[in-house]
UniProtKB/TrEMBL annotation:
InterPro entries membership: Methyltransf_16, SAM-dependent_MTases_sf
Gene Ontology MF, one: S-adenosylmethionine-dependent methyltransferase activity
The protein's name: Protein N-terminal and lysine N-methyltransferase EFM7
One Gene Ontology term, aspect cellular component: cytoplasm
Any Pfam family hit: Methyltransf_16
Superkingdom classification of source: Eukaryota
């Protein structure tokens, strides 16, 4: 008997994020809820609103005075682009949300800007297809070390004209340009390889870094193997040019 065809994936799904009430930001409709449309499925996992995106967004909004307002913001691997939407609402002078140059992903980011960001801020928010480093083929086939090299090259290219500052005396984020790298260990057995990015970044001699967030949010996928605490903890780092 022939096998039944697999069901077609849903074209889109939606996830929400509530802007913290104490910070005073509102979306295009005047409310605090940001609705993020996600592509129905995608081989690069752009169809999920990741815990890292939520934690990154809250961190950026909490420190908007020094990290966002009147700043140019570039997001790499944006997916649904929640952090980019949020910083557009929080007064960034220019927001560029990037992901793999896939038409569905790029169009979807534009839809999320349209739905949540009012004019004139909407005119300053762009969706641009981009590959880390150089060609995407070697990147996808690379070892973790190769991925690190490509990401470092992208960071160097985007921040090479501005030197950042180290931590301030009171521990507050400085106003100088920096890169935020937020991640979770979805495969605990590779946690050491994930974290090897930061010493490698420092070894370049051009970057400093510090941990700014460690927050347990619960795992994205409950049935995945490995320690749930490891899989469900978001780690956030701030990196700056020396």
């Amino acid at each position: 008997m022939p096998r039944s065809p697999s069901p077609e994936p849903i074209p889109f799904s939606y996830a929400t994020y509530e802007l913290p009430s104490e910070l005073g930001y509102t979306a295009a409709d005047g409310g605090r809820e940001v609705s993020i449309r996600l592509v129905g499925s995608h081989p690069l996992w752009g169809h999920h609103l990741w815990n890292t995106a939520r934690v990154t967004t809250t961190y950026l909004l909490t420190h908007a005075a020094s990290l966002v307002r009147d700043k140019r913001i570039l997001e790499l691997g944006a997916g649904g682009a929640l952090p980019s939407v949020a910083v557009a609402l929080a007064g960034a002078s220019c927001v560029v949300a990037t992901d793999y140059a896939d038409a569905a992903l790029m169009e979807n980011i534009g839809v999320n800007f349209d739905a949540n960001v009012p004019a004139p801020a909407r005119a300053r928010a762009l969706a641009v297809g981009h590959t880390w480093g150089q060609d995407v083929g070697p990147l996808l086939a690379a070892t973790p070390e190769g991925v690190h090299d490509a990401l470092i090259k992208t960071l160097d290219a985007t921040l090479s004209l501005a030197k950042g500052a180290g931590p301030t005396a009171d521990g507050a984020p400085p106003a100088a340009p920096c890169a935020l790298v937020f991640l979770t260990h979805h495969r605990p057995r590779l946690a050491d390889a994930d974290m090897a990015f930061f010493p490698r970044l420092a070894a370049s001699g051009a970057w400093g870094y510090e941990r700014v967030v460690e927050e347990y949010t619960g795992p994205m996928f409950e049935n995945d193997p490995g320690d749930e605490r490891v899989r469900g903890t978001v780690h956030g780092f701030r990196c700056w040019r020396l």
